[in-house]
């Protein structure tokens, strides 16, 4: 299988394809973030990096069997007050995915994004209604996403029985704990707690991991006998069903950003498994 992954990030599509049992002949990746590229090349050194999606001549690529990508969501997201949608400088890159799809005519394709401004236009352009799948089907993380694809998915993932406590590390470095002053501020500031719906204290599910969870006042927080702390890098990897230590070659801040931006692997595996179902049925 020849694959083109646009906005490749840390190559979650490659993890998912391997986990689903597909043989990858050539994997082309378009990514510009140096930290994400480092993670990919450390784990998959045979990846063919193409650089900026705006510079790719899609006609020059050989036969692509699977095209995938999670185009930038910043301008689409309902959290963005500007509501620029697909006219925004980042989210307009969806049209590069559309161009690749039209030029390459891949057998299979998959696009992921959030619900928000102009997602109805994405549906119209791709001529497919999206699947709405929440990562909490396969992992203890609430992460609602839309998936447009021509893969004939006709089932839901198996519901996980895991709770947040089940994926926590038994021993945690002190660097993940907040200061006493922060703890005191947090405990008395109820309005802030309520406004941060993705923060969690002793919940069954973590809130949605975000690209800004490295910041002082963002992220998922849990409380244990030693105080209040943020989720560790490994715990975030587990919540995205990514192998432990996958992002260990970059800084914590870079890892948090990459893991907040990436896909939940087992959701993608569930979608990919329906390709195998189609092949089996035809045979």
Kindly describe this structure:
This protein is 31% helix and 14% strand. The chain is of the alpha/beta class. Strands 3-2-1-4-5-7-6 form a seven-stranded mixed β-sheet, covered by helices on one side. A two-stranded antiparallel sheet has the order 8-9. Strand 4, helix 3 (94-104) and strand 5 (108-113) form a beta-alpha-beta unit. Helix 1 (12-20) packs across helix 9 (265-282). The two termini are 18 Å apart. The mean pLDDT is 89.
Give the helix/strand class. Answer: alpha/beta
Mean pLDDT: 89
**Side-by-side strand order of the widest sheet:** 3-2-1-4-5-7-6
Largest sheet properties: 7 strands, mixed
So how many helices? 9
What is the radius of gyration computed over CA atoms, rounded to a whole number of angstroms?
Answer: 19 Å
The coarse overall form would be globular
What's the helical proportion of residues? 25-40%
Report the sheet-strand fraction.
5-15%
Q: Looking at the chains present, what oligomeric state does this protein adopt?
A: single chain
End-to-end separation: 18 Å
Number of E-state strands: 9
Give the SSE string: EHEHEEHEHEEHHEEHHH
Poorly predicted segments: none
